[in-house]
Amino acid sequence: MILPFEGQGEVAAKKATSTSSQPAANGSKQAPVNNGPRIGGAPVRKQVSQPTGKLSTNNIGINETLNPTVRTGTKKQVAASTNQREDFTFDQLKRVWKEYSLAIRREKRESMYSTLMNSKMTMSSDYQIHLEIANELQGKKLEIEKVELLGFIRSKLKNYTIGLKYSLIATEKMEILDSKGIFDKLAEENSSLNKFRKLFNLDIEF
Predict the structure, then answer these.
(1) In a 3-state reduction of DSSP, which class is residue 46?
(2) Residue range(s) defining the domain that contains residue 152
(3) Residue 93: count of CB within 10 angstroms of its CB
């Protein structure tokens, strides 16, 4: 049993200091233990900040992949191209029209080629093309072809206001008339025929 003596606390403190400053057995110094600040002898807990929901990263996210950002310059270029409205003549239109029609023919689409080349075509001052077609079947096929046809013409002539309309030609019905029908038809145009028939007692074969 060791009896306490005067200055015992100071000796113990010096031993503790010398022990912590002595090198370890492998020659490296031991790092001093830091338990952090204390309040009333108890360690102070670190405060954790609440999540903000925003993560700063250089990686590309799914939303950016599915919805890529369109550059402003690209939008302006597209708008500029669709707003083109260069003047052109009817002869220039016919040349481009024929060029497209020949391409259709090379694809063995004779029916559409015939519709494009044989239909009467006119153009208004506001660049609207009008075709006179023979029947409704041509109209249905032309409606399907319309988007590709206009895209080709607008690109070639550098005018995106060009439009296309069509209408059916009013065809007269052929009438097969007998002798009476022929005489009545001629009598409508010349009323004197009936007078001559009665005057000379002509017998019209019916």
Answers:
(1) coil
(2) 90-168
(3) 19
What beta strand segments (E) does the chain contain? 38-39, 42-43, 120-123, 128-133, 163-168
Let me know whether 152 and 187 are in one domain.
no
Successive 10-residue mean pLDDT values, the chain, 206 residues: 56 53 49 52 56 52 47 54 87 96 94 94 95 93 95 96 91 60 71 73 62
The tokens describing 107, both together, are: 């694809």
- pTM of model > 0.85: no
Whether the CB-CB separation of 64 and 56 falls below 8 Å is answered with no
Instruction: Determine how many CB atoms are found less than 10 A away from the CB of residue 101.
Output: 18
How many whole angstroms separate alpha carbon 163 and alpha carbon 129?
6
Number of domains in the chain: 2
Closest CA to 205 of 168, 166, 175, 178: 178
Half-sphere exposure of 166 (CA within 13 A, CB side): 21
Q: How many degrees, rounded to 5, is the angle at CA 136 between CA 135 and CA 141? A: 105
pLDDT of residue 171: 61
